[in-house]
Amino acid sequence: MRALPVLSLQARGHELASPAAQRRALERTGTPAFDVVLERHGRAPLVAHGIEVLQVNVGKLCNQSCAHCHVDAGPDRREAMGRKTAEQVVELLRRHPEIPTLDVTGGAPELNPHFRYLVAEAAALGRRVIDRCNLSVLLLPSQGDLVPFLKERRVEVTASLPSFRAAGTDAQRGGGVFAKSLEALRLLNEAGYGTGGGLVLNLVHNPVGAFLPGDQSSLERDYRRDLQERHGIAFDRLYTITNMPISRFLEHVERTGNLQRYMDLLVGAFNPRAADGVMCRTYLSVGWDGTLYDCDFNQMLEMPSNHGAPQTLSALLAGERALPRRVVTGRHCFGCTAGTGSSCAGAVTG
User: Fold this and answer.
1) 290 pLDDT exceeds 80?
2) What is the DSSP secondary-structure string of 48-88?
3) Which helix or strand (DSSP H or E) is residue 249 part of?
4) What's the CATH number for 13-337?
5) Which residues pair with 83 in a beta bridge?
6) Helix (H) and strand (E) counts in the chain
7) Domain locations along the chain
């Protein structure tokens, strides 16, 4: 299939359609409901049976405004998790030692004033902690001690790098971002990240355009070879993630007249095996205001946990059970089940 147009930068922040309007736009494509396709393949209903990852979105403030961003994050955003909600997250981890991983995202999560509190407390509880980092944030004057802070607590860094070439990354993230990303990666390597000593540095690739990502293992080899040979940079793993038809990317494919084609691509590439391994089966997502979601994508479309499951951290801490729960789905879910599948830990199937 011919690739759809490459993204051009300059997201427009709050001019984007509301979450409800975005959901309606996906419905207008005429693609089948996700649950209908699951039922057709004997996979319905989609149910979560355990929480292996508590993913916490601490807000939408970011030092970048990436063209693909499903969060619609940027420097002008003010949504941010407060101390009380952060304390509730820590209390949830304290009460449930069976939740092994805290995954902190944003925006640029490091810019939230309670980011370090969350990380330090979770690490003290013996949890695996992941920081979803845009790399350039490490170069801000206010974050000069961030790498040592992460290193001391052995936080895993999962860093966005859409392409191993400057043109691709800058087209999606802004002029000069690739060079800043390389500088940040060198800082991480110098601290021992990604060099085989146990400090984990993973990179994240998503397509610079409206098509599915390539084979994850092949792309990892390409990234490893190019970054090492050209820039002397090492990392542990590469994750591939499909561009979700949400927020700025949805606006892009609508504006260029390619929404229908992109949704047809996702639906046509539906993989039942990928549906078996979608991350919402093992993740619980916490919004900046304490609302609970089945995944970060549902969070951005304002589709909270439902079907009898608690919808807030307060309710969960008050004794309402989060599991097992039926997952709330929508047409955007085809992004996680197309081809080899897509999750925050990369491709779902081999």
Assistant:
1) yes
2) E---SEEEEE-BSB-S---TT-SS--BTT---B--HHHHHH
3) helix 247-255
4) 3.20.20
5) none
6) 14, 10
7) 13-337
